[in-house]
Amino acid sequence: DTKIxxxxxxxxxxxxxxxxxxxxxxxxxxxxxxxxxxxxxxFPAKMNFPLFIAKRLYxxxxxxxxxxxxxxxxxxxxxxxxxxxxxxxxxVVLGFKHTxxxxxxxxGSHIQVADFMTLQQMNQYPVVMDxxxxxxxxxxxxxxxxxxxxxxxxxxxxxxxxxxxxxxGVGPEFDSTFIHQNMVEGxxxxxxxxxxxxxxLVSQLMADKLGLKTGQRIFAYFIDNNGVxxxxxxxxxxxxxxxxxxxxxxxxxxxxxxxxxxxxEEDQASGAEITVKDFNQLQTTEDYYVKNVNRTVDxxxxxxxxxxxxDLNPQIFQWLDLMDLNVWVILGLMLAxxxxxxxxGLLIIILxxxxxxxxxxxxxxxxxxxxxxxxxxxxxxISKGLVFGNLIALSILAIQKHTGLIKLDAQTYYVSTVPVExxxxxxxxxxxxxxxxxxxxxxxxxxxxxxxxxxxSMRYE
Length: 461
Description:
This protein is of the alpha+beta class. The protein has 17 helices and twelve strands. Helix 3 (68-108) runs antiparallel to helix 12, helix 3 crosses helix 14 (367-403) and helix 12 (314-352) runs parallel beside helix 16 (424-446). Helices cover 57% and strands 17% of the residues.
């Protein structure tokens, strides 16, 4: 009996110890369960599961012989080349348009205020451009600079040849920045509105036709109702803009000379040229002149009118606007190329990862989760392509901008080298648009995942 009681007490003590151990383990499990619940509740806030899996897939090198490796490289190259072509195209077209536009503006400013008949036809009709009128014109919003001008047709003659030209008289307020940038040789004389210095600027095209050089003296003939008058000028400088329409006719001289040759009064001129601060606000300034200046009459009975550089040279600006269509065609083609290569690459990647997709579905992953995983994978590929595309495009543009490596026929294209204008706003917009459009094009192909069955795919080789 004593042994039985002793055995029962030992077993009872053992059971108490085991029970205490079980309670301790149960408490530990409860603690771990609480920890897991806490981690589970915080998981969505800290980690995007499709993004996490996509990062692991993208960073995995795997077998070099896999089909997806070259497919990924081809898709990346397609995006890079497409973006590079788009950026270069946009920057070249912008550079070309603005270069030609600035040359046209250099000859005629942004807005001209002149006699109504002068703006409608080639004949010159004078209007009063005294100090009070110049002050009134400066009151318009956005005005940067105003200068008077007077036109007179004439003939330059050498011993062997002659050439019909248009003499443009400008005064001391003349902004010579544009001509200075396009000077070939010689210097720009000091133009005057009180006296004639008999100095002129001619273009390189005129100099080549007549065999002229700086410092050379040449006769000019002016024919009107008063008969033929002769003036002898000294060639002070030669300019070249390659804009043939203006280079073959435009000769610069004193405002005083042009006014006297026309037989006008001292306070008269062909008109005034106005330069605005912002070309995009050109119409605002023009609207002011239409409202406050147009249809007013000076003391000689001449009617004021105004016209923008677009109104005075519609053919050139319509031609420049047509270039926008070419840009849109290029953008569409390049986006299509980038999108198709990305679709091909994504389909190859999905097919190669069929077994993995089956396992994920068997573990409870939804089609939506798996689709988002591969879309994130595609975003990484596209982003890499965008980085390389920007590097390629900016390198090409920088080389062309600083070296002028690619030349053009100036007589055909009006510029001697391909002009570029790096516009960061357009570049950023192209990057964002390329990323969004390429991802959007991949949404439909990603639904192929919903047709993959777990049981069959896990046996797929």
